[in-house]
Write a structure and sequence with these properties.
The protein is α/β, with parallel strands linked by helices. The chain is built from 12 helices and 8 strands. It has an 8-stranded parallel barrel with strand order 1-2-3-4-5-6-7-8, surrounded by 9 helices.
C-alpha cells in the first residue's frame, strides 16, 4: 500500500477524518521548508500538501499569492522543493507529502524527469491545478508508473458526468473544491458539502478531501464530520506571514495545526456523543 492508502485506511478504521495541511515551500525563506515539514507532521498533520511556488497562482487567494512572491524572491523553485521533500524523507518515512502547483514548472522540468524525481524524493501525490482532465493522461500515466498518485480537483460546478470522468482517472484521494473562486474565501455550509460528497462517493471509493474555504477551527470541525479529509492552508499561511523569523514561522504554524488537529480528531466523537444522548 502507498503512504496515502495506508493513512486513509487507518483513519477510516479509527472513524475520523484526516487533517491535510498546506504551506508554500520556501516561505518565508528556502531554509524553512524542511523544518516546516517536520513541524507540521509533529503537530498532527496526517497529510502535508506542499505548494510549489509559481508566479501566477490563479486559484490561490491573496495570502497564498503573497507567499508565492516571497518564496520566489528568496530563490525557491520546483527543483529545490523536491530536494526539500527528499531531505524530509531521511527521517520521516510515514507522513504522506503531496505537491500542489501549476503545470508550467512541470513542463519546463519535463514530464518524464519530473515523475522520476518526485518518486525518488518520496513524494506521494501531485495536484496540478491548471492541468485539464482531457490533457492529463501523459503526466498521470508517468506518475502512476513510479507509484505517485495524480490527485484531481472536483469543482462545485462539476456535473455528474464530469465527476464520474474525474473519479475514473483519480488516485490517492479526490480534492473537492468547496466553493467557487479562490482559496481562503467565504464561509462554508457543511450541509451542502455533505450532500455534494455523497454524490461524489457514488462514483468512487477514494477518500474525499474538502478545501478552499476552511478558515478556522470551527469550520474544520464541521467539515471533518462529513468529509474524509479537511484541507487547510490560508489560516496556516497567515500565521507564517505574520512571523518575523524562521523559528517564529515554524512555532506559529505548529500552534495553529495542533488546534486544528484536535478539532478534526474530535469532530466525529462529538457527533457520536450527541447520538448516544438522544
Amino acid at each position: 500500500m502507498s503512504r496515502l492508502e495506508t493513512v486513509f485506511a487507518q483513519l477510516r478504521a479509527d472513524g475520523r477524518s484526516a487533517l491535510v495541511t498546506f504551506f508554500t515551500a520556501g516561505d518565508p525563506t528556502p531554509e524553512v521548508t524542511v523544518p516546516m515539514l517536520h513541524a507540521l507532521a509533529g503537530a498532527g498533520a496526517d497529510v502535508i500538501e506542499v505548494g510549489v511556488p509559481f508566479s501566477d497562482p490563479m486559484a490561490d487567494g491573496p495570502v497564498i499569492q503573497k507567499a508565492n512572491e516571497r518564496s520566489l524572491a528568496g530563490g525557491m523553485s520546483l527543483h529545490k522543493t523536491i530536494a526539500a521533500v527528499e531531505l524530509f524523507r531521511r527521517s520521516n518515512c510515514t507522513t504522506p507529502v503531496v505537491l500542489m502547483g501549476y503545470l508550467n514548472p512541470i513542463e519546463t522540468f519535463g514530464y518524464f524527469n519530473f515523475s522520476r524525481a518526485v518518486a525518488q524524493a518520496g513524494v506521494d501525490g501531485v495536484i496540478t491545478v491548471d492541468l485539464s482532465l482531457e490533457e492529463s493522461d501523459s503526466l498521470s500515466s508517468l506518475l502512476r508508473e513510479v507509484g505517485v498518485d495524480p490527485v484531481f480537483l472536483i469543482a462545485p460546478t462539476s456535473n455528474d458526468q464530469r465527476i464520474a470522468q474525474i473519479a475514473r482517472r483519480a488516485s490517492g484521494f479526490i480534492y473537492y473544491v468547496s466553493m467557487r473562486g479562490i482559496t481562503g474565501g467565504h464561509a462554508l455550509d457543511p450541509t451542502t458539502i455533505g450532500a455534494r460528497i455523497a454524490r461524489i462517493s457514488e462514483c468512487t471509493a477514494l477518500p474525499i478531501g474538502v478545501g478552499f474555504g476552511i478558515q478556522d477551527v470551527d469550520t474544520a470541525r464541521s467539515v471533518a464530520k462529513v468529509a474524509d479529509a479537511v484541507v487547510i492552508g490560508s489560516a496556516i499561511m497567515k500565521e507564517i506571514a505574520a512571523s518575523t523569523s524562521v523559528e517564529e514561522a515554524v512555532d506559529n504554524a505548529t500552534r495553529v495545526v495542533r488546534a486544528l488537529a484536535d478539532a478534526v480528531r474530535g469532530a466525529r466523537r462529538e457527533t457520536a456523543c450527541v447520538g448516544e444522548e438522544a
